[in-house]
Amino acid sequence: MATHRTKMLIIGSGPAGYSAAIYAARAMLEPIVVQGLQPGGQLTITTDVENYPGYRDVVQGPWLMEEMKAQAEHVGTRMMYDIITEVDLDGGSPYRAVADSGDEYIADTIVIATGAQAKWLGAPGEQELGGKGVSACATCDGFFYRGKKVAVIGGGNTAVEEALYLTNHSDDVTLIHRRDELRAEMILQDRLFKSPKISTQWNKTVKSFEAGENGALHHLVLEDTETSTLEVDGAFVAIGHAPATELFKGKLAMDESGYLDVEPGTPKTAIPGVFAAGDVTDHVYRQAVTAAGMGCMAALDAERYLAAREDEAEVTAEAAE
Ligand code: NDP
To answer: Tens of pLDDT along 135-173?
Structure first.
């Protein structure tokens, strides 16, 4: 068990955390990243990434995250393979955090970049067929189902947007919803109902995801008053995301879904020196590139916060002389 003193503790290791680390290390803040349960974040469970700027050819999600991590280390970040289990944000900076290993962190600033995770249905076959037909991200994986039959499960904005997005690749998209009414905004519903490529299955729940002989998704078993099947090559579960903010309940303001509140257009939480970046505070864009951008903003704002504090301390010291 050790105590680590740092100017910046970054909790989480997706694009937001690593980008904050790169900027903070280059500003000589000697940041420490505590990587969390899934080092590298959500991109480590996707395969091909084609929309992260700077790469003409497809790159692999895990590789991209390894590169970001290596870059952060190269400029002076310390990586800890640990999980923060407790934070104390009372009493002003420096703040204290404790990790699963028992290590303690005393940090002048904290960047929370713990991300979010897609919610899953929990139906049989769903996890087993992940990457083999079942996905939670049409923007990431839709491209692989060109000309194939796909389904989207859910009735909110995400589900409808995913279904509409999939029509770029497929002429046969089915939206499956557990009720007979969508939760999505009217403008999105309007686009959905106008699309000749999208059909709907109302009042249906997915009972299981079934594989074909090749081991990939072959059909869904649906249930309402009776059971039916729907043959598909790809199924996109779009029933919402859950931000990883359990640690901050009662300590930081969050919306009803658990996303951390920040001052609009900034990564600043209501607590000075504590910042939030990436999917943990963003339920709308949720892209690697937007998370990276927010990580950068958090590091720059942290640097300004520390500089302003030093200036204040100097003025106070001079006044006391
Ligand atoms: P939502 O919580 O809005 O919708 C989730 C949908 O999944 C609901 O239709 C819900 O059904 C359904 N669902 C939930 N659990 C299950 C289950 N176990 N089985 C079957 N269906 C289930 O999540 P979204 O991700 O769509 O949106 C989250 C937030 O992000 C919202 O505030 C949304 O407006 C926002 N958003 C905004 C966008 C934009 O502005 N462009 C884009 C995407 C999201 P039911 O309706 O019956 O509860």
So the answer is: 998 887 898 999 999 999 999 988 999 999 999 999 999
Q: Ligand 1 centroid to 154 CA: how many Å?
A: 7
Gap between the Cα atoms of 193 and 155, Å rounded: 13
E runs forming strands in the chain? 3-11, 32-34, 48-49, 59-60, 78-80, 84-88, 95-99, 104-112, 116-118, 134-135, 149-153, 172-176, 198-201, 205-211, 217-223, 227-231, 234-237, 241-243, 274-276
- Digit-coded pLDDT (tens) for 282-302: 998 989 999 999 999 999 999
DSSP state of 314: H
164: CA distance to ligand 1 center in Å?
15
- Site to probe by mutation for ligand 1, drawn from 239, 279, 281, 283 as the one with most ligand atoms within 8 Å of Cβ, is 239
Backbone region of residue 123 per phi and psi (left: phi > 0; alpha: psi in -120 to 50; beta: other values): beta
Pocket mutation for ligand 1, best pick of 183, 207, 282, 290 (most atoms within 8 Å of C-beta) = 183
